[in-house]
């Protein structure tokens, strides 16, 4: 078997979008990927993130919000930024690492609340983008 593809999903707080993307990559590609996620700032995983992922059969209740780990960052083959804000705050992606930008809306408001419908829409968009990326990389 070839070495697994190393993917690192980033957003500002690592509480929603990047958590979903990491979970979908692991779910669809299994041992063919080493997927991680992180944020520029650490937070708590939003309860609706856990709820909408559970709706599609993926349990992320044990995952934790994490800050960017530079070792994971530079050892990745692909870094996927899920929001524009990360571009401004994220370390520069080194030459030789594929740098992917997805501008996915944050389903939370400034108060940290969003509707379940907004979380579902974001989840479905992320699932589509993750599957497309995995297919492009010939992992699934």
From TrEMBL:
CDD domains: LMWP_ArsC (cd16345). The keyword Ligase does not apply. Keywords: Arsenical resistance. Pfam families: LMWPc (PF01451). InterPro entries: Ptyr_pPase, Ptyr_pPase_sf. Residues 5-136 form the Phosphotyrosine protein phosphatase I domain. This is Arsenate reductase ArsC. It comes from Paenibacillus gyeongsangnamensis. The lineage of its organism: Bacteria, Bacillati, Bacillota, Bacilli, Bacillales.
